[in-house]
Backbone:
């Protein structure tokens, strides 16, 4: 199992590097292409929310590059400044994607509800991870330490697995609503799709990486 784990971790590393490169190039390409509607990302997100009957979600601009996210607890849709004010296909795609998460929240999308329920235990597992790694480096991965590592990565792997359908569904909702609302034409979906598909691969890489480390610690716990 060690060999399988190492190959999986290495494959995830390469996939992660490729995914980051792809999202950077796709975003850079389509952020230079303005939409025919000429509206901003913030306006596109507002249209999607309004059409879904959502009036209690705030749309705010935040610092950073591609730091966009939806906070279901505070009901805040945060867009990086370049997407909040941007009028490009990339900006509208990212903004509508985050609005898609807000729509998921409103309609009670099952996988989002499951993901939200996993957040507390995932945060706990993530907090324990540095101690496990440093403990293994300095004291060796004893069976007990390896079992704890497997438990932590088991939680992280499940979280990453649940995240995949949540992200893919949000992207599908974004593309569908952008066209249905007349914000984008069918031909403009190429830019949106390319940007969102590239971003999706980063989540796939994260899942494979967690799975690889889970296999590694499971193998270590058997020694």
Residues:
């Amino acid at each position: 199992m060690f060999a399988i784990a190492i190959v999986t971790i290495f494959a995830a590393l390469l996939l992660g590097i490729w995914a980051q490169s792809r999202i950077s190039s796709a975003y850079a390409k389509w952020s230079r292409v303005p939409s025919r509607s000429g509206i901003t990302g913030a306006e596109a997100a507002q249209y999607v929310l309004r059409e879904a009957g959502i009036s209690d979600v705030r749309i705010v601009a935040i610092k950073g590059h591609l730091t966009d996210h939806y906070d279901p607890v505070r009901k805040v849709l945060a867009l990086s400044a370049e997407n909040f004010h941007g009028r490009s296909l990339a900006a509208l795609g990212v903004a509508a994607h985050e609005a898609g998460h807000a729509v998921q929240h409103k309609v009670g999308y099952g996988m989002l509800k499951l993901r939200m329920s996993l957040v507390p235990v995932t945060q706990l597992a993530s907090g324990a991870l540095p101690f496990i790694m440093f403990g293994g480096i300095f004291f060796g991965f004893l069976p007990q330490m390896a079992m704890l590592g497997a438990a932590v990565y088991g939680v992280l792997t499940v979280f990453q697995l649940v995240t995949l359908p949540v992200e893919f569904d949000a992207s599908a909702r974004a593309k569908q609503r952008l066209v249905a609302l007349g914000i984008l034409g069918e031909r403009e979906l190429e830019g949106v799709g390319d940007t969102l598909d590239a971003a999706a691969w980063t989540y796939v890489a994260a899942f494979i990486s967690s799975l690889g480390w889970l296999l590694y610690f499971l193998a270590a716990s058997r020694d």
Notes: The mean pLDDT is 93.
